[in-house]
Amino acid sequence: MARAAERLRLVVGHIDRSPSSIICEPTSAQAFTNSQPQKLRYSFDTGLLTPQQRLFYEENGFLLIRNLVSEGDIERFRKEFERICRQEVKVPGLVVMRDVAIAKSEFVRDQKAVSKLQDFQEDPELFRYCSLPEILKYVECFTGPNIMAMHTMLINKPPDAGKKTSRHPLHQDLHYFPFRPTDRIVCSWTAMEKVTRQNGCLVVLPGTHKSTLQEHDYPEWEGGVNKMYHGVRNYDPDHPKVYVEMEKGDTVFFHPLLIHGSGMNQTQGFRKAISCHYASSDCYYIDVKGTTQENIENEVSQIAEKKYGMGDVSFMDTWAIRGRLVQGERISM
Q: Which pLDDT score, from 0 to 100, does residue 227 have?
């Protein structure tokens, strides 16, 4: 009887522990290169992710979920993108970006002139992506239950015009974010059509999320670099790369310190994807002055002053006005 009581006490003690304190041991030699137990730092046990999925994210910093977003939703996002490109709808705060190679050519008012929509939080149809239950249930595994949608994009990667400007340099998303903690931030990135190496799929450097934020700046590329497309200055060129090829509706979730980018679009079509960066509403803003992020802060401030005449808006403020609560309770952001 005493032994049974002791066993029950141990089981209850295990159940009462927080998800971050759970120690998992690998089930095969392929999972880890060593046999030591490992604490799971980067995800919560919500009952959704399998142990194998949590361990994969722990080691690699990204997780691909197949066939997550429906074809019907993707078609609606595509139609709204086309309406915006035809200027049939005006969206407050929306930033319409063009590839530098396209911008130097004759401007045509259709989607072929647009390489990216950024900050679409005021467009109800596109912002619906950020609130999809099938997305949020995975986001909660990384942020916890209180979720803010912080940064939104619809990428329309154009065929490369011969200048290699359709590339996106290797970078860490945290470079752009003045909020922490880092591990409670995650990006969801959904393919709106088949994404391959030929049309410029994401390329990631697995495991780099375990490092720190690196110094970023514009790469010295011939042909030019698109505005705000900073890249990591120093990284190991011999680090293994993974090309994340995806089908329509597939979604990849990744950590903000994961070094990633995308290659040229070497096809004749456009490669569309929609994404959102989420953060726990428990996160807090930081002052980036004197850090490696000061250059992006200065650039954002200059753009805000030029476009909106707002010289007294801080870097934190530019993010605070974009954030939207999509699940749970707004705590400190």
A: 60
Q: Let me know: does 181 contact 243? Beta carbons within 8 Å.
A: no
Length of the chain: 333
* 304, two tokens: 């805000």
C-alpha 156/C-alpha 212 separation (Å) is 30
**Among 78-92, 129-143, 213-227, which range has the highest average pLDDT?**
129-143
**Tens of pLDDT along 159-192?**
877 766 667 789 999 999 999 999 999 999 999 9
Q: Determine the residue type at 318.
A: T
pTM for this prediction: 0.83
The dihedrals phi and psi of 191, each to the nearest 5 degrees, come to -75, 130
Sequence ranges of the domains in the chain: 41-327
The neighbour count for residue 76, using CB atoms within 10 Å, is 15
Fold held by 41-327: Jelly Rolls (2.60.120)
- For residue 3, pLDDT over 80 is answered with no
Q: For strand 284-285 and strand 185-191, is the pairing parallel, antiparallel, or unpaired?
A: unpaired
Q: How confident is the model at residue 287, as a pLDDT?
A: 94
User: Around Cβ 198, how many Cβ atoms within 10 Å?
Assistant: 15
Reported as a single tens digit per residue, the pLDDT across 28-44 is 333 334 444 568 999 99
Three-state SS sequence of the chain: CHHHHHHHHHHHHHHHCCHHHCEECCCCCCCCCCCCCEECCCCCCCCCCCHHHHHHHHHHCEEEECCCCCHHHHHHHHHHHHHHHCCCCCCCCCEEECCHHHHCCCCCCCHHHCCEEECCCCCHHHHHHHHCHHHHHHHHHHHCCCEEEEEEEEEEECCCCCCCCCCEEEECHHHHCCEECHHHEEEEEEECCCECCCCCCEEECCCHHHCCCCCEECCCCCCCCCCCCCEECCCCCCCCCEEECECCCCEEEECCCCCEEECCCCCCCCEEEEEEEEEECCCEECCCCCCCCHHHHHHHHHHHHHHHCCCCCCHHHHHHCCCEEEECCCCCC
Residue 21 has pLDDT above 80, yes or no: no
